[in-house]
Amino acid sequence: MSNERWKSVDEYLGERLHEKDMILESVLANNRKNDLPTIDVSRTQGEFLRLLVTMTGAKRILEIGTLGGYSTICMAKALPEDGKIITLEANSNHAACASENIRNARFEDRINIRVGDALMTLPELENEQESFDFIFIDADKPNNPHYLEWALKLAQPGATILADNVVRAGEVINDHSTDPRVHGIRTFLDQLANEERIDSTAIQTVGEKGYDGFVIGVVKR
Question: How many Å apart are CA 74 and CA 58, to the nearest integer?
Fold first, then answer.
């Protein structure tokens, strides 16, 4: 089955299950205008994130990797009035675009963008005694092992941890890969296999973003 068919099915599902969201459409348009890479989550994946936040009752979310804020806004739609997202973005241009998108979506009171290398920002969150009940990891894959370590430090008992792009079109099983992203994911999965603090699984996905997958886990109480 081709990527074109996967894309068509995604479009069909999106049209049947979700009303057109002009805010999210404007986010994607502004991202294109600012030359951001087209690696946002898809519409159905964004709705999946929103539903996960709803189902878990999350109030404090950490996102590692903002890009233009599409996934951030999807999650913010499910937050209660006293909810909060801290999202980390290393690229200042991406962060500026995301800030504009978040302002236009009227979520600036619930979303705080921290600009800078996440491995420098995460210790600051620890020093500020921040903790989170939902953590979404979607940044540079070679650092996923480090992000998992920090996620476990900052997670509340029972927190959900979700990591995107862990299948890499099936390359994750290629132990001879020269792609540092693949090696980062493989090390990340090895960590999860040996980590007693989290109960996790992985799901393969296909769609307009191609063939990939995600890891989802729950921090043990």
Answer: 13
The candidate with the shortest Cα–Cα distance to 130, out of 146, 162, 147, 153, is 153
- For the segment 36-77, what is each residue's pLDDT rounded down to a tens digit? 999 999 999 999 999 999 999 999 999 999 999 999 999 999
Is-contact 185 170, C-beta < 8 A? Answer: no
How far is residue 96's CA from residue 86's CA, in Å, rounded to a whole number? 15
Q: What is the DSSP letter of 41?
A: P
Under 8 Å CB-to-CB from 51, ≥6 apart: which residues?
78
Residue 180 CA to its chain's centroid (Å): 19
Are 73 and 24 contacting, i.e. CB atoms less than 8 angstroms apart?
yes
Task: State the alpha helices, DSSP H only, in the chain.
Answer: 3-17, 22-33, 43-56, 70-76, 92-104, 118-127, 144-154, 180-194
Task: Judge whether 27 and 73 are in contact, CB under 8 Å.
Answer: yes
Residue 1 has pLDDT above 70, yes or no: no
